[in-house]
Specification:
The chain is of the alpha+beta class. Strands 11-12-14-13-15-17-16 form a seven-stranded mixed β-sheet, sandwiched between helices. The longest helix has 24 residues. The N and C termini lie far apart (71 Å). The protein binds zinc ion. The site of zinc ion has 3 residues, from loops.
């Protein structure tokens, strides 16, 4: 019987091999550089064609979100295009919290990840393809600490500034799959929703706010261990040049509507979080957010409003969080969109769970909801 081999020395790779024994392995997730966050994993296993393998991710009680592991099934692919789920179980009493993944590869190599990876190569393809479309402007916003470009796409002839930005947390790859769906729709000259949106709106789109964390295989931070979504009240060139550049450009453009796209480790649902608790809160501004939430809820069965974060009490909002700062600073209707790593509790799809395909479709509905929301605002 041969021995399985495990590799993670590639872009966004993340795993430490503690030991292997024939077709099983004990593994641990590496922390984000200069930080204590650990949750993202991405590695390949070779040498087990047609045989069941057993992979144990240990020490997860100390991961960033231990609540993310119960009812979670690991993502697996053999062609790196189609991502399915491998049956997984979590035992909090085994080796400090262990996720056991069992899978029988049909071929000799299988890839495992926390969610379907979205590589920087694919990011560059996405940017190049969109930038080549008619009426799309490209702007290089900044250079990251690892020396990568921070990319912004702008389009639309309208007056209203709308910001869509994703992946402040790099391990939340759902967010860039969402962006792919959004850009596909917005750059389609035949799409009536996109045409009307582009007539009314000027879009400012950052498909990946954290290229360094993405390439390094981080869950939550950039090259120097900064959680970008806590930096918005006071971004700096040393710790968070990504946020500094985006906020500076927002100061130029203003913000009418903003959606910050994320993934949530524990909650098995798609949901929105608003800006309750900001110092400048008014029911009027709040109503604009709740209206958008209602429209999206009606448009797609993949969205819901029962599961989500508790509302922040009056005056207690953390202005380091983008949605709060953007609502406070620009008076915008700002929101955080969260997608799950797990499957949807109320609309499960056991083969794939929440998937890149569903992220892309959700983005299309979010844009259609935006148009409906703009029409409703106009009618007020
Ligand atoms: Zn996030």
């Amino acid at each position: 019987m041969t021995q399985i081999e495990i590799d993670a020395a590639f872009e966004s790779g993340n795993i430490e091999v503690l030991s292997t024994d024939k077709r099983s392995a004990r593994l641990a997730i590496r922390k984000d550089h200069q930080s204590d966050f650990a949750q993202w994993f991405h590695f390949r296993v070779s040498g087990a064609e047609g045989e069941e393998i057993e992979l144990k991710l240990t020490g997860l009680g100390k991961s960033a979100y231990p609540g993310g592991w119960p009812d979670y099934n690991a993502c697996v692919s053999e062609d790196r295009e189609y991502w399915a789920r491998a049956a997984s179980t979590y035992d909090e009493s085994e080796e400090g919290g262990t996720l056991t993944i069992r899978y029988t590869p049909a071929s000799d190599i299988a890839w495992f990840a926390y969610f379907a990876p979205y590589s920087m190569e694919r990011h560059h393809d996405l940017i190049a393809e969109a930038a080549a479309c008619e009426g799309v402007d490209y702007r290089r916003l900044a250079t990251t600490l690892d020396g990568q470009p921070l990319d912004l796409l702008e389009m639309g002839e309208g007056e209203l500034p709308v910001w869509l930005y994703a992946r402040q947390h790099p391990g939340e790859t759902q967010a860039e799959w969402w962006m792919e769906g959004a850009l596909e729709r917005l750059t389609d000259p035949a799409d009536p929703v996109a045409r009307e949106l582009r007539r009314r709106v000027r879009f400012h789109i950052v498909p990946n706010c954290n290229p360094d964390g993405s390439r390094r295989g981080h869950l939550r931070t950039n090259a120097v261990g900064t959680n970008l979504n806590r930096e918005w009240s006071d971004p700096s060139a040393d710790k968070s040049p990504e946020v500094l550049a985006i906020r500076d450009w927002m100061d130029e453009t203003g913000v009418h509507f903003a959606m910050d796209v994320h993934g949530d480790e524990a909650i098995p649902a798609v949901f929105l979080a608003g800006f309750e608790g900001i110092p400048g809160w008014s029911d009027e501004q709040g109503k604009r957010f709740y209206r958008y939430q209602r429209i999206l809820d009606r448009r797609t069965p993949d969205f819901q409003t029962e599961l989500g974060y508790p509302k922040t009490p009056a005056g207690k909002a953390n202005l380091g969080i983008s949605t709060n700062l953007v609502a406070e600073r620009y008076g915008a209707c700002a929101m955080t969109l969260e997608m799950p790593y797990k499957d949807l509790h109320h609309a499960p799809e056991p083969e794939q769970g929440w998937s890149p395909e569903r992220c892309r479709m959700l983005a299309r509905e979010c844009l259609a909801a935006l148009l409906e929301w703009l029409e409703a605002e106009e009618a007020d």
